[in-house]
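Q: Entry one of two.
A:
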Amino acid sequence: MCFMKQVEKKAVGNYLILSSMTMQRPQKPPFTLEKIRIDDFAAEGKCLSRVNGEVIFVEGVAAPGDLADVRVLRRKKNFGEGKIVALHEPSAVRVQPPCEHFGVCGGCKWQHVDYAAQLDFKARQVRDALERIAKVALPPIRPILGAPGLYFYRNKLEFSFSANRWLTDEEMRDGGELSRNAAGFHVPRRFDRILDVRKCWLQPDPSNAIRNALRGYAEAHRLDFYDTVNHQGFLRSLTIRTASTGQVMVVVQVAQPDEVAIAGVMDFLKTRFPEITSLNSVLNQKGNDTFHDLEVRCWSGTPFIEEEMEGLRFRIGPKSFYQTNSAQAYNLYRVAREFAALTGDELVYDLYTGTGTIANFVARQTRRVIGLEYVEAAVTDARVNSAVNGLTNTEFFAGDMKKLLTAEFFDQHGRPDVVITDPPRAGMDPEVVQALFAAAPRRIVYVSCNPATQARDLALLDAAYAVTAVQPVDMFPHTHHVENVAVLELRA
């Protein structure tokens, strides 16, 4: 099978002209490959199969070991893309997914795969990235640290209310009058369609009860669900945060300044769910659902909830960032602290500190911690969290990392003995890497949510640092995402 496409050409003078005005290769119609074996997982949660030397990436409900018919829908120069249309022999790693919305909802795409197989692939993903991209000397990689809970592990979910509900195949076949209101998640690749979710397996109680009750209240009181296409309607989104302390935060976004309707929603939630310890609303008339630049109105309780780790309390506001898997975040931070090998006398820099969770977590084992973060609001939260816990050896700065880390900054605040860095998925800026060379800490602990960009940065740091330990951590079961922690020691 060959995916090469023919393009008609003609010569005009000394130039070669393609007949296609779009300059694109023409697409052949879709076709089906029968009874092919799914070989392995691939990037972004896909699977792959190798057929006659060509790679076919398979989306959807596929698992390594499946024998299936695959409909090839798109073809590129060196690979094809398709989905399973018939399963002849299920893989040995397949399990029965518990969620009724599996396969339609865009979350938890690996529910149908045994957790041990998920962990195996994630560990290989880390190893492959470090070996293929970093190409540095590596120690034996530690076994991946699996999550203690496979379901109901998230402490934060955001649900959309929509007047454009996604209709399932069964509903389309049945016909009849159907409500188009929905409260749930976006269907993959459809910003304008929301899957109505009855039970989500990601967040513990009372998350499902609050969402379903608010949907019922809105329909009973004829409150318009939001139309994303036309930007019309009242009820827009619902954010629920559940803390390990038992505290619950609710943020309701509305698109119209109807004080009577807003008060009705708030009174209903307050009365129906007395366990809500922070009840808030946001008026959002923008084109997107983000509310970091908008006022949050607290109707009852406190304007924050609290998480707890080893006796430390972390305040989380409606706009605060906090790791969404509280139990596994604790394990991740313990690994980072272990790798830092603190004796109590170190000056530690915590880069990309966010709300200062790691900085405050290690502060009791250090002489001093300096946290640096882009977002001013996050730095404010970090300072509050230090104050709440009586920590006086922390200091936080907001600004562009590559502009903060200057020779003048090091002269004023001291050169770090240990650096802990937890950058976004894009990894560290090259200027930050150069600043680390200038500061020359004896140890760098690199926490990453993207092994590929981490590997790129490890390759850059290899000029002065050797990787001495690697620990993959699974924060998000049933997804392809994996965290990794690496420790680097300054070469003699």
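Q: Entry two of two.
A:
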Amino acid sequence: MKILIDSYKLLDNNYNLMRTLINNLQNDKNCEITLLCSSKDEKNKLTENFIFDGYKFKLFDEDLGEYDFYLSAMNDKPDCISKFSNITSVAILLDLFYRFESLDESFATIRENTRFYRNYDYYLTPFNYPENIHNITDDLEIRNLIYLNLYNFSDNYTIEKELEFRKSVCTNAFSSLILEKMTEINNLRSNEPLVSVVTITFNLIKNGRKETIVECMDSVKVQDYKNIEHIIVDGNSTDGTMELIKKYDSINRLRVYSEPDDGLYDAMNKGINHARGKYIVFLNSDDFYCRNNAISDAVSLLEKNKLDYLFGTAKAITVEGKVVLWHPDINSIPYAMNYCHQTLFVKTEVMKKLGGFNLAYKVSSDSDMMIKLYKDNYKYGVLLDPYITYRLGGLSSVQSEQSKLDHSNSFYKQIGSEIGLTRKECEELWAMKFFKTYDIRHKLYMIRKLSKKFNTETVLIKIIENENYDLSLKQSVKRILQICARKIKIKI
């Protein structure tokens, strides 16, 4: 979140509280803070002061269109940002209480003096203005944090009391409350739910993925859906990957976290924990959205139909560079991956409820998640127009045997055992290997079990098309045809 701070009077001792708040926001990884200066002289004074060492600065006449919020504790009107409709202006009434002491004013007078803050889109204040819907402190602890401490501070002012007040009010908790509410403001203003795009990285340059991560980030950046947070979770890269991403981040909006992890799915779980969006999607560092309305189409389908998750058609780039389509099919869960996880949009609260990805499945925890979502009857939809391009050759691709074991084990535990299949049978279902393993009667037995949960018409037809039975199996084949006929409602 990019925040523009009005620097007016920040060097004044009366504004210690505001400075403390700014420092807290600056230290928050979710924030990028820039101080707005009215003149070059003011900018020079701030840059020369060690308190603001390391901060970014902007002048009034520079382009401010990239910012999400403009915060002020003093100016009466946010005229400087009036031409930037994308910026939400917020007034924070933290330091005005000092007038109470220095000017011997009453609370009533302070309230009158702060009427001009209603010119802002939103404001934070310990005082009630019930007629104004833009006061965003009604349901927050901010009011108590300021209001309850105001009396003690205003009585016989001392520097020590001010320091205690600063500690009690402008804490990290206070800053977090402000950020939480500003996130809500952004969502309400846009009327679009926040989408968290999570990308996992680790030593991309070393592994020849320098170009693909840029392609990935670019595909998110150009989306016509704007209420997006792009979260980069890095496994503590040592090859310059972080430097590359941070350089890119100078022109983009990223939330970057870098620390050691316990593998891909542990990193993805960290992404879930960091996600603030209503929906979450995992975009691999070598994958990208193949059209700029991918996210808007997905959100539209999710919202319109009140879905818990959706998946869809994807483009896959083979090792040879050939592009093929992956067509999703929920009924293929017993036999293989039913859709690629990069197409999965799911409610963040659902992912958290399910406990995130199971780290016991080192290769195919994404498959385990797909099975869980289906097994627990979450409402889903399918987006048929391809919207994601991914590259073959990932972890599950190169470790197919482990992938098979992970998938079949998850399927057995969550669905197979409930419908009467053995663990071995669930393993043989993978890639339809049961075709070669079992006789026709055993195949029919397994299909009947599967039909309790899935549409098995396609598999039945495949059995008919691909098996050459002798005459002794005539009755069995007729039985298959009868089952197919019931499915398609044709009499034989």
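A: Comment on entry two: The radius of gyration is 29 Å. The first helix runs from residue 16 to 27.
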